[in-house]
Structures are given as structure tokens and as C-alpha cells.
Design brief:
By secondary structure, the chain is α/β, with parallel strands linked by helices. The chain has a single domain, classed as Rossmann fold. The chain has 6 helices and 6 strands. The protein has a 6-stranded parallel sheet with strand order 3-2-4-5-1-6, with helices on both faces. The longest helix is centred in the middle third of the chain and has 20 residues. The chain starts with a strand and ends in a 20-residue tail after the last strand.
């Protein structure tokens, strides 16, 4: 099954991580690949307490403004290769591709390459793709799509990201 959490609202990664915790609590094995992200977010420390959750980052830790650098592309491609290995190894029950939609939007990864990797998953493996701007071809192959819509956000009042809440 393929789930997608997309939209311009806050909470896509949070929803995916909540699912990871639920799956881990049920004894399932979870792999999380964070694309674009490279900073030490609070969830990394928390998830290390779960023996059956593995998390890796494939980003430099900065926002990509303008044209991505070669290093950004190389990290994203490495992440996609790790996802492919995780899928073909069949060791994980839940695989989360955090911010993969942004990676395809920025052309760090080709949509066709992502689709090729997703097709390799066995039906029992749950795949979760997060990030704004989910490509129509990705939406088409999904079994579940949740669009998280921003109605109101305190960021617009000048409130900055807070440790433990946004990172």
C-alpha cells in the first residue's frame, strides 16, 4: 500500500512519524529516509529509543533556495538507492520517504525513478511518502492520499519554529 501525506499545512512528517511509532509498538520493522533534511531534529533522538525503527537523512541540513547543488542531487539519489535496498531486502514492514515529494519537485530525483522503485515493493510493505507538491503520477499510484491544508498558522504572526514542536 502507498500512502501520501501532502499539502501546504503543518503535520505531514508528524503524521508519518506517528504511524512509525504505532507500527513499532505493534512489533513492525520501520525504515525512515528523510530527504532534504540533514539537521539533528528532535525526533531523531526520540526514535533511537525504538529498536525496530531505523532512520537516515539524505540532505545537507539547509533549505534549498534556487537551483539545487550537485551535492543535494547526490544525497537524494543515495537516499533513493537506500529505499530501493530497503524494499528489495524485505526486512521492513513500513518504509517512510519523508519529504520525497519536495525532492521530486526540486528535480533531485526523477519521478520516473521514484515510480520504478515504488513498483518493487511487495503488497505487504506499507510505503508512506510525505511532502508538499506530490506529483500527479505519484498521486495516481497511491492507495491513500491525505492533503493537509493550512487554514491558519502562527508562523504568519512572526512566531518562529520551536524546538520540540517544529523540529
Amino acid at each position: 500500500m502507498i500512502q501520501i501525506y501532502t499539502g501546504n499545512g503543518k503535520g505531514k512528517t508528524t503524521a508519518a512519524l506517528g504511524l512509525a511509532v504505532r507500527a513499532a509498538g505493534a512489533g513492525l520493522k520501520v525504515y525512515i529516509a528523510q530527504f532534504i533534511k540533514g539537521k539533528r531534529y528532535s525526533e531523531l533522538r526520540a526514535l533511537k529509543n525504538f529498536k525496530n525503527i531505523k532512520i537516515e537523512q539524505f540532505g545537507r541540513g539547509c533549505f534549498i533556495r534556487g537551483k539545487p547543488e550537485k551535492k543535494d542531487i547526490a544525497l537524494a539519489k543515495k537516499g533513493l538507492e537506500k529505499i530501493k535496498q530497503a524494499i528489495t531486502a524485505r526486512r521492513f514492514d513500513l518504509i517512510i520517504l519523508d519529504e520525497i515529494n519536495i525532492a521530486t519537485r526540486l528535480k533531485l530525483i526523477k519521478v520516473s525513478d521514484l515510480l520504478s522503485v515504488l513498483k518493487k515493493a511487495r503488497p505487504k510493505t506499507e510505503l508512506v511518502l510525505t511532502g508538499r507538491y506530490a506529483h500527479p503520477k505519484i498521486l495516481k499510484v497511491a492507495d491513500l492520499v491525505s492533503e493537509i491544508k493550512e487554514v491558519k498558522h502562527y508562523f504568519n504572526k512572526g512566531i518562529k519554529a520551536r524546538k520540540g514542536i517544529e523540529f
